[in-house]
Amino acid sequence: MMESPPLPLDAAASAPSRICLHEFSGRLGEQLVHFHLMRLQGSLFLWVGAAPLLSNLAVAMCTPRDSIPVSTSVLGDASDTTSSSLAQRLARKTKKQIFVSYNLENTESNFILLIENRIKEEMTAFPEKF
Amino acid sequence: MAAKPILDSKQAEEVVQGVLTEVVCTAFANSILVVVTQYGKMGTLVLVEPNVLANDIGRASLATKVLLGKDEILREPRGPGKRTCGSCPPLVHVCAKNLVTFVSQEAGNKPVLLALALKDKSIEGIKAVREVIRSCKVC
């Protein structure tokens, strides 16, 4: 269950933005894929999966030294680069530090493109959640 | 296309020792993600994992591992001419264990991935933050 108590109107304008939780889903490649997003200050946490498992985590952030954001795996099998590369591309798009946990078996590039497009679709529809 | 969310998350926000503290707990089948922040950001990532021994069905001992961020031993110099104290326990590990051991145990010895960003690391602060985490119980 998501709980997000509302801020009083006068405090909302001056208070630092609170952690915002957002859930969305999409039927991609005949599979129901769930996305769980946490927006923090200048950073995002995105979990992608079909079952409630956390099997890996990668983080990426932009750097002034390179147009490609730096990324690294922090949890799970580092030889599977799906989470890191997804984090890299999202960091580039959002300009934020982004943590990504990709927990689906299908890691084919065509499928990942569907995943990214679903995320971009949600970013366009609900930009305040990202 | 709205489907029922498959992750259970709870969020809390409280002023602890004068510092705004946000906690988010998310339950997975194989772990619990706990975000504790006084900076509005993820901070240091610590994995708190039970070492379950073959014969030990009850309380497992917990190992802490810093996955991302600061991991250093805190040393307190005692002034010129005096010996420094022996190696002090790494503060991040101590805080992590104090904050989420109960979360792991109450979830059936699941590993806890803790994102920790604290301004106040005093004993009173930690105890108070632990209660905020307790109010966000998800499992």
From TrEMBL, chain A:
Q: Name one GO cellular component term.
A: protein-containing complex
An example GO biological process term is:
proteasome assembly
- Enumerate the InterPro entries for this protein: PAC4 (IPR032157)
Classification via Pfam families: PAC4
Q: Which GO molecular function annotations are given, in alphabetical order?
A: protein-containing complex binding
Q: What is this protein called?
A: Proteasome assembly chaperone 4
Q: Organism, per UniProt?
A: Sphenodon punctatus (Tuatara)
TrEMBL record, chain B:
Q: Tell me which Gene3D superfamilies the record gives.
A: 3.30.230.90
Q: Which InterPro entries does the record cross-reference, listed alphabetically?
A: Proteasome_assmbl_chp_3, Psm_Assembly_Chaperone
Q: Name one GO molecular function term.
A: molecular adaptor activity
Question: One GO CC annotation, please?
Answer: protein-containing complex
Q: Name one GO biological process term.
A: chaperone-mediated protein complex assembly
Protein name as annotated: Proteasome assembly chaperone 3
Native source species: Sphenodon punctatus
The organism's taxonomic lineage, starting at the top: Eukaryota, Metazoa, Chordata, Craniata, Vertebrata
Q: Which gene encodes it?
A: PSMG3
